[in-house]
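quick one before i forget lol
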Amino acid sequence: MKRYAWLTAGIILCCGVAQAEVTVSRVFGDHMVLQRGIKVPIWGWADPGEKVTVEFAGQEKTARPNEAGKWMVRLSSMKASAEGRRLVVKGRGAEITFTNVAVGEVWLCSGQSNMAFTMGACKSVLQEALDTAEFPLIRHITVGGGWSVAKAKDLAHNASWQVCTPKTVSRFSAVGFFFGRKLHQEIGVPIGLITSAVGGTRIEPWTPGEGFALVPELRGLRDQAVDAEEKYRRQMGEAIVEVRKWIADTEKALETGGELYMPTFPSHPLNKGSKPTMLFNPKINPLVPYAMRGAIWYQGESNGGEGISYLYKKRALVEGWRTVWGQKAASKGGPGRDFPFYWVQLANYRSPGEKPEGGDGWARIRMAQTKALDIRNTGMAVAIELADAANPNDIHPKNKKDVGERLALWALAKDYGKKIAYSGPLYRSMKIKGSEAIISFEHVGEGLMVGEKTGIEPVKEVKKGSLKHFAISGEDGKWHWADAKIDGKTVVVSSKDVEKPVAVRYAYTMNPDGCNLYNKAGLPASPFTTDDHWK
């Protein structure tokens, strides 16, 4: 494949004027997957006014660059095709060819380290999956690059689409691989996975300014994002003045033998860990408007102490991405748009919670993640029991198989028309009857059960088993461990210490070790609290 082409060696000269080569965005490459069923943008850069032609699958589209030199064509909607075809871009005296291009379903995989976590890092648990990963129609690309206060027009580094084989899969996002494998096995079309994830990152840097502007509660973050590059340049100029003064004072002390008890070296004005848009700018914006079905997201650990504020930020992220991708507004109610967006609720972590009131650690952010399901066309894979049993202090559980496959269930049901159970029980309502609290759920399916999950093995029903990690409180506000029993499609919760129940909590702690409520499809119930503590 030639990404950059010249008519002659190095430089084309026409009438004494150097001509820029025709280029294509770095997201395009050999082995890539193009999205079926919608128009497909192909873009790059060339001299303004130059005619650029793109040929693929019997189509020929032409465009001319704008004043900034950017050109774009949109291929007409195509059906899925496993045939590896050539995509050719032609400019004045130049030709760029990409080979083995397939058409199928494309998904963006983003978030922090648990999304970036590779198959190779999971080999102690998932070796068989590595050894059998011969899937030539699953393709993966990893976005590189760092942080930026300005929107990047292209990816920072050359990246390459990889065909899935036992030799290449170790570098794939593990969550992405199992998500993609499940889709490929169920719908039988090529799958393209674009991973753009960075460990230890908060949600704010991944969110575009357009997203913050849509959520009134995030006015402060919106203001930070406005004119961020201009502000940063000003701050950097001020910092340089301080650095020069520090250097001058230090040099003088060295020359004169004076004391070196100078102030510490001036700090850099950039706090990249929380500044809004600084990962969106270099690692998401250059992907826009690559045609794709939707996104999966695994993040939250770095915002782990938050409650309702994370709900607002999740809305800004989802709606912001949909906005920059030019998604059409939803036709029937709700604040959402049509771009599918599915995320992972944080897994259990650290020492088991022993207090019935819970509320510690990630309890509140898990509620925010659940409440974010009110955003139209979103979904959530619950991972509350997937920590490594022998090492609950590992923030990177190696069982990414269940995580990816649970995400895929949402896509299969919502986007590909499969009539399947796709979510575990989600709290819907509570009814008080005497000394009992009756809890109703959505996504009960064929019924509730006590389940047992061991490693990557399927969940097993525990006949006559007892539900664990339910707590109940009365009018005095004190919490007690509760008796909980399945009654049809509800759970009845009570305690001898609570005469008049007021609220119920389930698995509402950092690590609700042993929580075991599932539906008959083997999907776990999400943690919940019926009160407003999480806000």
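fyi The longest strand covers residues 94-111.
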